[in-house]
Amino acid sequence: MRSCLIVTTYNWPEALHLTLASVARQTQRPDEVIVADDGSGPATRAVIDRWHAAGLPVEHVWQEDQGFRLARSRNRAIAASRAEYILLVDGDMVLHPRFVADHLQCARPDCFIQGARPQLSAATTAQLLQAGGAADVGPLTPGLQRRAYALRSPLLSRVFSRTKPTLGGVQGCNQSFWRSHAIQVNGYDERFTAWGPEDREFVARLLHLGLQRYYVRHRAIAFHLHHTSRAPTAPNPFDSLLDETLARRATWTEHGIASHLDTARARQA
């Protein structure tokens, strides 16, 4: 099967460089790499051009900066992909060298995958960004949170990985799923125009469709660079969109990927 790694980003080119460097070191590279850009400036474009010139099959899907439109950015990238299987990460992550291979080997017809994201400390993140090159990150890296999740072991993975029917632990920064399933639920709900549970709402519709969430541990590891939390301190008004989906057991949103598919097909023709 053909695979596409989608990397979401917004105006942090130094972090994106580390992410793409870790993509270049994969033991099994994805067939496509798409940077889903929510309106970054020229510095981000320069990073992408650099890696494209180095031979990484990376495409830049950019949209105008009109505020937080992560859901729309992801939809446009999924629509642009020609691959059967989508891997999704954020552009502030360092991928284990077997990240892509692990996701593809763990893929199942009736599942989508949730991987782990051990978080790096502010000090270690600063060191990696300053070095700017190949980031050697592993379970012994100083300042690592949730260190046990950083240990890659196929044996432990078989013991501790399991399917889960709940939304607990859902994080859009380390997921993979079949593109056909994403289209079947109409992708991400583009009414999420500020930080919120757009990833959990998307997953809820996949679960309502009858899919299982395969919670993979000790494989498919991606290390998360430190940054200030963007979560609001007050109650989030976008929680109501998730509540509505759960109450109706919805499998479809009227505000999703469908509007981008025709545009993508025309461009690919």
Write up what this structure looks like.
By secondary structure, the chain is an alpha/beta fold. It contains ten helices and ten strands. α1 runs parallel beside α2, α3 packs parallel to α10 (258-268) and α8 packs parallel to α9 (239-248). The protein has one domain: Alpha-Beta Complex (Spore Coat Polysaccharide Biosynthesis Protein SpsA, Chain A).
**CATH homology group:** Spore Coat Polysaccharide Biosynthesis Protein SpsA, Chain A
> Major β-sheet, in short?
8 strands, mixed
Residue runs with pLDDT of under 50 for 5 or more positions: none
Distance between the termini: 21 Å
- List the domain count as a whole number: 1
How big a fraction of the residues is strand? 15-25%
Percent of residues in helices = 25-40%
Number of helices: 10
How many strands appear in the DSSP assignment?
Answer: 10
**What is the helix/strand order?**
EHEHEHEEHEHHEEHHEEHH
Structural class: alpha/beta
Q: Rg from C-alpha positions?
A: 17 Å
The global form is globular
The chain-level mean pLDDT equals: 94
CATH architectural grouping? Alpha-Beta Complex
Please outline what is shown here.
This protein is α/β, with parallel strands linked by helices and 269 residues long. It has helices at residues 13-24, 42-53, 70-80, 99-106, 122-131, 154-160, 179-184, 198-208, 239-248, 258-268; strands spanning 3-9, 32-37, 58-62, 85-90, 93-95, 111-114, 162-164, 174-178, 212-215, 222-224. Helix 1 links the parallel strand 1 (3-9) and strand 2 (32-37).
